Amino acid sequence: MSIELNEALGGASGAGDQPGTDDLKDIVQVRHEGDVAVVTMNYPQRRNAFSMKMRVALIDVFQHLMHEDAATRAIVLTGAGGHFCAGGDLSEMQALTPTLLELRERIAVGVRLFRLIYTGTKPVVAAVEGTCFGAGLSLAAACDLAVSSNEAKYCCAFAMVGLLPDTGLLWTLPQKVGGGKARELMLKAQVIDAATALRIGLVNQTTEAGGALDAAIQQAARFASYPPVTLALLKASLVNAGNSIEDAWRLEVDLNPLTRQTGDHTEAVAAFMEKRNPVFTGT
């Protein structure tokens, strides 16, 4: 294991102060910037390690934002303390000895979170600073777009700790960077910098250190200004149209008539003709 990888995993392995109950009370925080919800993983003692408490809290938050909070039209996912997420909480793994069935249930929790982000009706933008390793990489890849600090580091670290990629990464990484590059990243488990992540398509934009969150909010605000129904159907199409050309054709024929009948489409056409900005209501 490289020194760089070992140091990064230290943030998820119990290095440093041990957190108490109060430290975990607000392990996921949410604030709003207009129509944009900013979701912050708040476990800086361990570089926002993907503990079970973190997973469950994120599921609760994304379930609410995707399905219950009509005022939120786009979401930003980020981490506290200058890091995105260092991956699974290795100290938690060492402390527990679950059965095979219990392990399956724990993995299923990560899958549920992945599905909420990846197949949800609202666009999600990752804002990445610092460490983005293991399950942190999975979370970033599950988002629709990723904005990265130019000092961020990425690693598909699973093989180095005797695990398979989880939280949807077996699907999303090939979708982002292509099958060959995904295979290389998974097998080699090498740390890559933000410039490389941008070049291979793992992230969509880089910023100066400390600037990822503002840039991600700006991009999410742009998404929030789009017709919500169209965005929801577009996300569904992107999830389901990649299996075959027949799937893509079928979705085009089935879903485009729905968008043509929305009030937001009518408003967009009227605004264009009247040379004004459209006001979308989600109807």
From TrEMBL:
Protein name (database record): Enoyl-CoA hydratase/isomerase family protein
Record family assignment: Belongs to the enoyl-CoA hydratase/isomerase family.
Pfam families named in the record: ECH_1 (PF00378)
One example GO MF annotation: catalytic activity
Superkingdom field: Bacteria
PANTHER family noted in UniProt: ENOYL-COA HYDRATASE (PTHR43802), IP11341P-RELATED (PTHR43802:SF1)
Residue spans crossing the bilayer: none
